[in-house]
């Protein structure tokens, strides 16, 4: 399948987990399964030479550097170029590119600068390497606090910068200056090990997490450039200038043995860089359970306790609350429209309750709750302070509402309801007999206060 950067008839999602994206100098980016199956080719503008690729997972787009005109193409998941980034001053080439977790892009240029662009493609700043060598590739440390850059002019080790301290230049990383002949692309494993291709020696060098040289991990490549480390710890590398027709891309295990090899020069041309599509795994509450399977993704609950087996962890939803299967739990709790909450339910603070919800007798609702329009609050319900109650809500007999509550227009408040201090009651509200409204309440136009209502 070939998909063009301008028009293609078949709409297909190219961004599937685990796929390998490999640029070539023939105006293309080749898309592979890890089995070596070529599933698609993304075509770039004619006569362009793609240099490196990286994914912006915030926008779910692919960045491709163009080595012929110093631009960066942004490609969507169907292979369409949706944006082209141009630096504020022309550069002859961008080669390497990396994108951080916030969508900021770091592009290495041949003028000795790393150009930093925001998530939306706006230029932000320059990070300059001393003496302005020709830069090759960039990458970020696993914790995203350091930026590493390879170069081909002078010392040829890896320069690095502290992104948390005004991009402070830290010199050469570890032993990389001492052992480099001409380092090109490099990547960190999850445990902090650093793998680097050396174009002149045709080796992959391995460094420990502290930057000390460990070993020659693999030798026998032909002008090796592109390199990536997959999530499973395997190392993928390209034989850039192997014209013999032998395999271009190798997958190596953690001992440096070949697991997979595929592709040839006629298909790939030169492939300076490569990148896997691995969307980040989210664990918002840091309890070791990823959000996709966490029954309470906003509150840490490594035990995943769910006494009533309703699919929602007790740390997020009290087991006395009856909820539907399709309940949406966001930050704090969101209770969807049309839900019926059974008798004596307990709902925690900061809950958002959608429209047309029926809250049954004797329920207890925490503070700072947002109750949607046209809901029904049944007899003897207790509602905490600073709650917002939407328009058209029916508040039944004996409901207790805390301090600082906002009650919307056209609400009906039945008898013997108690409303706390500093309440704000909207227009055209009907307040039945024997309702008590405490100090500093504001009751607006056209509200009906029948006999027996008490406003302090």
Overview of this protein structure:
This protein is mainly beta and 456 residues long. Helix content is 2%, strand content 38%. It has two helices and 45 strands. It has a seven-stranded parallel sheet with strand order 26-29-32-35-38-41-44, with no helix packed on it. Strand 13 (135-140) and strand 14 (146-151) form a beta hairpin. The longest helix is centred in the middle third of the chain and has 4 residues, at 176-179. The chain is elongated, with a radius of gyration of 30 Å. Mean pLDDT is 79; it is low at 4-10 and 325-334.
Secondary structure layout:
Elements: E1 2-4, E2 20-24, E3 28-32, E4 38-43, E5 50-56, E6 61-66, E7 71-75, E8 81-85, E9 94-99, E10 105-109, E11 113-117, E12 123-128, E13 135-140, E14 146-151, E15 158-162, E16 168-172, H1 176-179, E17 183-188, E18 194-198, E19 203-207, E20 213-219, E21 224-229, E22 235-239, E23 249-252, E24 258-262, H2 265-268, E25 275-276, E26 333-335, E27 340-341, E28 346-347, E29 351-353, E30 358-359, E31 364-365, E32 370-371, E33 376-377, E34 382-383, E35 388-389, E36 394-395, E37 400-401, E38 406-407, E39 412-413, E40 418-419, E41 424-425, E42 430-431, E43 436-437, E44 442-443, E45 454-455
Parallel strand pairs: 1-4, 26-29, 27-30, 28-31, 29-32, 30-33, 31-34, 32-35, 33-36, 34-37, 35-38, 36-39, 37-40, 38-41, 39-42, 40-43, 41-44, 43-45
Antiparallel strand pairs: 2-3, 2-25, 3-4, 5-6, 6-7, 7-8, 9-10, 10-11, 11-12, 13-14, 14-15, 15-16, 17-18, 18-19, 19-20, 21-22, 22-23, 23-24
């Amino acid at each position: 399948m070939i998909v063009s950067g301008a028009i293609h008839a078949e709409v297909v999602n190219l961004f599937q987990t685990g796929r390998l994206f490999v640029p070539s100098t023939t105006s293309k980016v080749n898309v592979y399964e890890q089995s070596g199956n070529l599933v698609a080719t993304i075509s770039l503008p004619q006569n362009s030479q793609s240099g490196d690729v990286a994914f912006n997972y915030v926008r779910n787009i692919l960045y491709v550097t163009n080595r012929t005109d110093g631009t960066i193409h942004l490609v969507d998941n169907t292979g369409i170029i949706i944006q082209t980034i141009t630096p504020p001053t022309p550069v002859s080439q961008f080669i390497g590119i990396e994108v951080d977790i916030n969508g900021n892009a770091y592009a290495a240029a041949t003028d000795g600068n790393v150009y930093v662009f925001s998530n939306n493609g706006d230029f932000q700043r320059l990070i300059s390497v001393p003496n302005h060598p020709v830069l090759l590739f960039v990458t970020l440390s696993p914790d995203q606090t350091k930026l590493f850059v390879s170069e081909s002019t002078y010392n040829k080790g890896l320069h690095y910068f502290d992104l948390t301290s005004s991009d402070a230049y830290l010199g050469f990383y570890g032993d990389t200056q001492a052992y480099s002949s001409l380092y090109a692309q490099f990547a960190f494993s999850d445990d902090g090990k650093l793998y680097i291709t050396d174009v002149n020696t045709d080796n992959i060098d391995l460094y420990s997490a502290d930057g000390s040289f460990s070993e020659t991990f693999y030798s026998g490549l032909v002008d090796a450039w592109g390199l990536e480390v997959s999530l499973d710890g395997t190392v993928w590398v390209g034989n850039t200038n192997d014209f013999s027709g032998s395999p271009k891309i190798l997958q190596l295990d953690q001992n440096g043995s070949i697991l997979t090899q595929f592709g040839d020069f006629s298909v790939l041309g030169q492939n300076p860089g490569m990148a896997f599509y691995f969307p980040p795994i989210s664990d918002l509450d840091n309890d070791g359970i990823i959000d996709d399977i966490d029954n309470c993704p906003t509150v840490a609950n490594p035990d995943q306790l769910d006494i009533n087996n309703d699919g929602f962890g007790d740390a997020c939803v009290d087991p006395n609350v009856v909820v539907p299967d399709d309940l949406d739990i966001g930050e704090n709790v969101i209770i969807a429209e049309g839900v019926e909450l059974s008798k004596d339910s307990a709902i925690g603070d900061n809950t958002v309750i959608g429209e047309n919800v029926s809250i049954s007798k004797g329920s207890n609702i925490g503070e700072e709750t947002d109750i949607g329009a046209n809901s029904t609050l049944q007899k003897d319900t207790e509602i905490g302070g600073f709650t917002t109650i939407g328009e058209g809500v029916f508040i039944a007999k004996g409901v207790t509402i805390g301090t600082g509550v906002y009650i919307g227009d056209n609400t009906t408040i039945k008898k013997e309801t108690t409303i706390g201090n500093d309440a704000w009651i909207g227009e055209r509200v009907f307040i039945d007999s024997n309702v008590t409204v405490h100090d500093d309440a504001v009751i607006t136009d056209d509200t009906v206060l029948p006999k027996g209502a008490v406003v302090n």
